[in-house]
Inverse folding.
């Protein structure tokens, strides 16, 4: 299998876009993993929460000083999705 990353290393901006896009995708998956909308706070499986927390670690580590701001935006996207799905139920 060809290792694309060795042949064509991504620029810093491309890495940002890839990781940011991945984090937003995971936020979407977290919102879709809710198992119970009847309580005030939606119930989400522990494995999904673990993946979310690992995503946070990765974003903070990869983006250094900018990590907090980027994570804040990703967190905001999750909150928006959860609110949207809650009102659809």
């Amino acid at each position: 299998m060809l290792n694309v990353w060795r042949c064509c290393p991504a620029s810093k901006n491309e890495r940002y876009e890839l990781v940011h896009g991945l984090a937003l995708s995971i936020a979407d998956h977290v919102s879709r993993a809710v198992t119970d909308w009847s309580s005030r706070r939606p119930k989400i499986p522990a494995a999904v929460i673990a993946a979310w927390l690992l995503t946070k670690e990765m974003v903070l580590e990869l983006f250094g000083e900018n990590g907090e701001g980027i994570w804040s935006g990703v967190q905001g996207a999750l909150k928006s999705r959860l609110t949207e799905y809650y009102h659809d139920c």
